[in-house]
């Protein structure tokens, strides 16, 4: 199947109109497809299920409000999904940054909090075990929904992939360059710990799982190790980050992603 912008919808959960209008709303494709915004939701899963119920497009792009999609991104997405369907007509999910079944990091995406482009470029669609939540593409006919019982705003990128895999469907990283104009965080809070514990219990039978942040293990020692590393790497990590005041269009230009249209017909 060949998709166009008319088959797509952007869905975002946002607590800040300022961040939304400075980033995602600046994306050229936001003028070509509906932009559905959820506000005041108690969790990401609840927000995104509301968005699923409120929209009808076959392709649902769940995206953070601090993400910018460069010119031609929708055409590139259509081309990448065609590549996925050529090898797997029953695909469920695609994403911009994912963790391969072998633990490889697949991108590429720009991260302001890291001050660099991260992720290998998959030359063909790469099956993954988890996604970074910054951008997840869902095929509506997969009938997947987010788990309303997952608390907070973390780990749903891993949970939705595992739901797909449990139903015999796959998720793929497909090389969808974009700008994540995310701010630097010193450490992850109790809400991240709560999500980690939830995932430990729910997916105990398939652990360990690699997420873009850390490994989910039965023992939970990886969570403790991550906290220790964050405590002693604060100075290094903060020095790497750049200000989110940079215009995302300028960041895209620096990455060579001013116009992705030529890549879509490569």
Short précis:
The chain has 266 residues and is of the alpha/beta class. It contains 9 helices and 15 strands. It has a 9-stranded mixed sheet. A 4-stranded mixed sheet has the order 4-13-8-9.
Q: Secondary-structure element order, as H and E?
A: EHEHEEHEEEEEEEHEEHEEHHHH
- Give the helix proportion (percent range): 25-40%
Strand content: 15-25%
Radius of gyration: 17 Å
Task: Decide which structural class fits the backbone.
Answer: alpha/beta
Protein architecture, described:
The chain has nine helices and 15 strands. It has 266 residues and is an alpha/beta fold. The strands form three sheets. The chain has a nine-stranded mixed β-sheet with strand order 2-1-3-11-5-12-10-6-7. A four-stranded mixed β-sheet has the order 4-13-8-9. It is globular and about 45 Å long. The protein starts with 7 loop residues before the first strand and ends with a helix.
């Amino acid at each position: 199947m060949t998709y166009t912008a008319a088959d797509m919808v952007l869905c975002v959960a946002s607590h800040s109109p300022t961040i939304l209008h400075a980033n995602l709303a600046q994306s050229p494709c936001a003028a070509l497809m509906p932009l559905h915004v959820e506000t005041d939701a108690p969790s990401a899963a609840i927000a995104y299920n509301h968005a699923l119920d409120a929209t009808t497009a076959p392709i649902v792009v769940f995206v953070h409000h601090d993400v910018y999609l460069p010119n031609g991104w929708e055409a590139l997405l259509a081309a990448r999904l065609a590549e996925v369907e050529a090898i797997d007509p029953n695909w469920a999910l695609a994403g911009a940054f994912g963790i391969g079944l072998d633990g490889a990091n697949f991108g590429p995406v720009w991260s302001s909090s890291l001050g660099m482009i991260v992720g290998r470029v998959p030359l063909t669609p790469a099956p993954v075990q988890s996604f970074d939540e910054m951008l997840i593409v869902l095929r509506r006919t997969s009938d997947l929904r987010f788990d309303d019982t997952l608390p907070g705003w973390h780990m749903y990128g891993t949970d939705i992939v595992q739901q797909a895999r449990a139903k015999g469907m796959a998720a793929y990283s497909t090389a969808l360059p974009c700008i994540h104009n995310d701010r630097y965080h010193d450490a992850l809070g109790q809400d991240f710990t709560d999500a980690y514990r939830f995932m430990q219990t729910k997916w105990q039978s398939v652990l360990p799982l690699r997420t873009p942040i850390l490994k989910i293990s039965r023992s939970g020692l990886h969570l403790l190790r991550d906290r220790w590393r964050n405590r002693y790497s604060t100075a290094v990590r903060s020095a790497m980050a750049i200000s989110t005041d940079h215009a995302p269009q300028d960041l895209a230009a620096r990455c060579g992603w001013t116009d992705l249209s030529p890549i879509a017909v490569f």
